[in-house]
What we know:
Blueprint: H1 2-32, H2 35-52, H3 59-83, H4 85-88, H5 106-127, H6 130-150, H7 157-166, H8 168-177, H9 182-205, H10 207-212, H11 226-242, H12 245-248, H13 255-277, H14 280-303
Helix pairs in contact: 2-3, 2-8, 2-14, 3-5, 3-6, 3-8, 5-6, 6-7, 6-8, 7-9, 8-9, 9-11, 9-14, 11-13, 13-14
Amino acid sequence: MKNAVIRNATEVETAARNGESVRGRVLDFAELFKARLTLLVLLTTAAGFYLGAESPINYAALFHVVFGTAAAAAGAAALNQWLERKLDALMRRTRTRPVPAGRMRPAEALTLGVALSVLGVSYLGATCNALSATLAALTIVIYIFGYTPLKRASTANTVVGAIPGAVPPMIGWVAARGAIEAGAWSLFAILLLWQLPHFFAIAWMHREDYSRAGFRMISSDDRSGERSASQSVFFCILLLVIAGLPAFLGVVTFAYLAIELVLGGLFVAVAMRFLKARTVRAARLLFITSIVYLPLLLAALVLTKS
């Protein structure tokens, strides 16, 4: 009887350890593939497809473009973490990632990154069209061979890094229409401009961490925050103007403009607060505002489609 109780307790303990191991493994994959960033890619790709598509919506085609783009984005994220594993180990905010922390072998991250990148591009080519696959491949190339090495060479890395993040809605649009049109470029411009104040806020909050890894950001020698905040205000104002383009291009109705102006105005106000206060709290508020702004703007675009 006593032996049975001990055996049952051991089995329960082993099962609990196995469960924790599986959960930890899933969380590691989510971090390797930058799950939250990939989710953003899903949303912007889907929005681009929906805005470019004619009624009725082909939901099978929507699934294909979202799946293929998500796979490519996850692959690029894994390759980025493989390349930067030694630098990530130097930074407090990234040293717990699976590869620098030693929970995943570099070769595994590399294999997954290559496999998912190839899968994503190939899948888009097979199920959507060659142009959407080409855009996805270009996104991976710029992210891995442009943005990643540029982070230690020039402060221009933020702008270059924003390009891959702005391409997914174009991929969605191209999958729906087969061509890069003015509407697609307007979505690209919105995503590009949105990322700049978003990343300026992050870079200023973690400027010491970035400097420790040798990354060159505009915040590196900007202890006062004046440069980061003023740049954030400038690009928020520019975004306020450019985000209205879809209405004038006929992608959405003019009802969208009212929503866009309110959202953009609030974004500018928060950026100006950062410029005035120049504190970590103000930078964090700008970062949070940017996260709230984008899905609301995408929802406005989708709901007011022409």
